[in-house]
Amino acid sequence: MTTTDLSRNVLPDDNEIAVAVESSRTLAAFLSTAAHTQRIELLNDANQRQVVEVPTFALRLFGEILSELALGNAVKVVPIHAELTTQEAADLLNVSRPHLVKLLDEGLMPHTKTGRHRRVKFADLVAYKNKRDAISRAAMDELAAQAQDLRMGYE
């Protein structure tokens, strides 16, 4: 069973943000291809070159990471099969740990138990979050439509 440390948050500094802005733009220009792999060239401090073949999907993911860093956001990469503690899962959902445990006990999200400790798969957490977000969006759309029907000034 794999657990992932989600407690480490590092925000990019101003220089890193500026570099991320420029590099994400440059990278985006090269990723409009149907090729499955891309060759990139890396230079070390001594200007020694190394060509690396990378899946295009991985470079697109790297581009998304750079875009988030360009906005000043911290980024974490979590393997989809990772198992999270209840505290880590609660933090990602932005709810309290007791509330998350209640969701687990009600069967609203799958989990496993290792002794007395519950573990939540990251994939299950994402599926629950996506479902919850879709329900919230539908409710907001309904409220907005209702407000327009009642001419409440949101036209």
Automatic annotation (TrEMBL):
Q: Which InterPro entries match?
A: DNA-bd_dom_put_sf, HTH_17, SinI_DNA-bd
The Helix-turn-helix domain sits at: 84-132
Renumbered to this chain, the signal peptide range is none
Which Pfam family is an annotated match for this chain, by its short name? HTH_17
Q: Record the organism.
A: Pseudomonas sichuanensis
Q: Fetch the NCBIfam families from UniProt.
A: excise
Q: Output this protein's name.
A: Helix-turn-helix domain-containing protein
Its domain of life?
A: Bacteria
